[in-house]
């Protein structure tokens, strides 16, 4: 490769480095060699190094310039003074010292976007979080819920522009950019940056929208139907694209995240896709067996009680539980049977139980059942 400067070597990256890798390398070196951090005896050395890494980053961070550099070397960006056009490195240092940039992230954005800073670019709107409570029955079947949001949206009157009438900016002739040439100790530099008069838009408002006060955004109350799929779980977040707040300067909308909260059920408890319920049965049903009707999440079903069923036995009802999200699989219903001992008995019932108690096999059974 022709040319006298190896920008890849300056940043310590290889020729196949991705833009993110170049960004990390630049930030690390810029922090290390910023002139404000230089020892007194190395001020000039740090300034030269800082200039060099910014020059390398501005070339390798621009796809078109990087392609030219890979083909022709650094000579493609050097004029008679040896400076590369398109960026003023002394201006970077002065802006960083004055606090014009928040951090090196902003400096990097200016390097990699032709001098356009974040403040002049479109900004994506904020994401919103909405907590929504659903019942276990709604979890089983899925549902649609209407929610109400109070969020920023584009002003309808000015279509988010902040004004209704615009004219071409006379300062940048509608391009949105201004060029400035400055002579520094490093040579003559040309900086291209967003026009400070129109903030890079290329046009100036002739009025201020009365509906939004020139902001382009207004806060509105919106009603929105949200589809809840079957099987959702506590804490699950459903993403609704584009239903967050509107972005600034025609930026894209944020997203809405609906966080699910499942209301406690009076008789069912949930374990993943399975549901549990406790059902009382009589002593005779436990001894002789029976078929009973029990509630399930969406109605009722018949359950067979085998003869000799012990108290707290768990009987499984296949596929009577909850569905899995986006799956044909369905959980089970687990029924814990509990034998109820009557607190009032007739004399005849007492005599019969006494007779059973005298039977040796039954004696052991009763002891096991009731202690």
Question: What is the alpha-carbon Rg in Å?
Answer: 37 Å
Q: Name the helicity range.
A: 25-40%
Low-confidence stretches: 79-88, 94-103, 114-120
The CATH architecture of the largest domain comes to: Orthogonal Bundle
Overall pLDDT, averaged?
81
Description:
By secondary structure, the chain is of the alpha+beta class. It folds into three domains: 7-115, Orthogonal Bundle (Helix Hairpins), CATH 1.10.287.110; 128-160 and 213-262, Urease metallochaperone UreE, N-terminal domain (HSP40/DNAj peptide-binding domain); 269-340, Urease metallochaperone UreE, N-terminal domain (HSP40/DNAj peptide-binding domain, Sandwich), CATH 2.60.260. 27% of the residues lie in helices and 27% in strands. It is built from ten helices and 15 strands. It has helices at 7-11, 19-33, 43-60, 63-72, 89-98, 104-112, 136-141, 283-288, 347-358, 360-370, and strands at 128-134, 143-154, 166-168, 177-184, 187-194, 203-205, 217-228, 237-240, 256-262, 269-271, 274-282, 290-296, 299-305, 314-317, 333-340. The strands form six sheets. It has a four-stranded mixed beta sheet with strand order 10-11-15-14. It has a three-stranded mixed beta sheet with strand order 1-9-8. β4 and β5 form a beta hairpin. α2 (19-33) packs antiparallel against α3 (43-60). The protein starts with 6 loop residues before the first helix and ends with a helix. Mean pLDDT is 81; it is low at 79-88, 94-103 and 114-120.
Topology:
Layout: H1 7-11, H2 19-33, H3 43-60, H4 63-72, H5 89-98, H6 104-112, E1 128-134, H7 136-141, E2 143-154, E3 166-168, E4 177-184, E5 187-194, E6 203-205, E7 217-228, E8 237-240, E9 256-262, E10 269-271, E11 274-282, H8 283-288, E12 290-296, E13 299-305, E14 314-317, E15 333-340, H9 347-358, H10 360-370
Parallel strand pairs: 1-9, 11-15
Antiparallel strand pairs: 2-7, 3-6, 4-5, 8-9, 10-11, 12-13, 14-15
Helix pairs in contact: 2-3
């Amino acid at each position: 490769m022709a040319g006298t400067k190896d920008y890849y070597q300056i940043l310590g990256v290889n020729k196949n480095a991705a833009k993110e890798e170049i960004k990390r390398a630049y930030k690390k070196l810029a922090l290390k060699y910023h002139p404000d951090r230089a020892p007194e005896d190395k001020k000039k050395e740090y300034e030269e190094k800082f200039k060099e890494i910014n020059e390398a980053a501005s070339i390798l961070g621009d796809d078109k310039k990087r392609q030219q550099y890979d083909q022709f070397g650094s000579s493609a960006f050097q004029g008679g003074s040896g400076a590369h056009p398109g960026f003023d490195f002394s201006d970077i240092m002065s802006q960083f010292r004055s606090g014009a940039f928040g951090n090196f992230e902003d400096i990097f954005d200016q390097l990699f976007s032709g001098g356009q800073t974040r403040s002049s670019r479109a900004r994506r709107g904020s994401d919103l979080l909405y907590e929504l409570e659903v019942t276990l029955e709604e979890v089983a079947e899925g549902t649609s819920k209407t929610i109400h949001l109070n969020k920023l949206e584009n002003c309808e009157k000015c279509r988010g522009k902040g004004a209704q009438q615009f004219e071409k900016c006379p300062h940048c002739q509608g391009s949105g950019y201004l060029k400035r040439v400055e002579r520094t100790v490093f040579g003559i530099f040309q900086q291209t940056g967003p026009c400070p008069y129109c903030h890079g838009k290329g046009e100036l408002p002739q009025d201020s929208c009365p509906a939004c006060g020139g902001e382009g955004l207004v806060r509105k109350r919106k009603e929105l139907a949200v589809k809840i799929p079957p099987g959702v779980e506590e804490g699950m977040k459903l993403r609704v694209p584009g239903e967050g707040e509107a972005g600034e300067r025609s930026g894209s909308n944020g997203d809405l995240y609906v966080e699910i909260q499942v209301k406690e059920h009076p008789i069912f408890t949930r374990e993943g896709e399975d549901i549990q319920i406790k059902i009382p049965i009589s002593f005779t049903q436990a001894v002789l067996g029976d078929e009973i009707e029990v509630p399930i999440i969406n109605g009722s079903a018949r359950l067979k009680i085998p003869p000799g069923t012990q108290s707290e036995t768990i009987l499984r009802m296949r596929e009577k539980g909850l569905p899995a999200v986006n799956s044909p699989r369905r959980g089970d219903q687990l029924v814990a049977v509990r034998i109820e001992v009557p607190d009032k008995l007739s004399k005849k019932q007492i005599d019969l139980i006494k007779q059973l108690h005298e039977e040796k096999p039954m004696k052991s059974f009763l002891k096991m059942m009731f202690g």
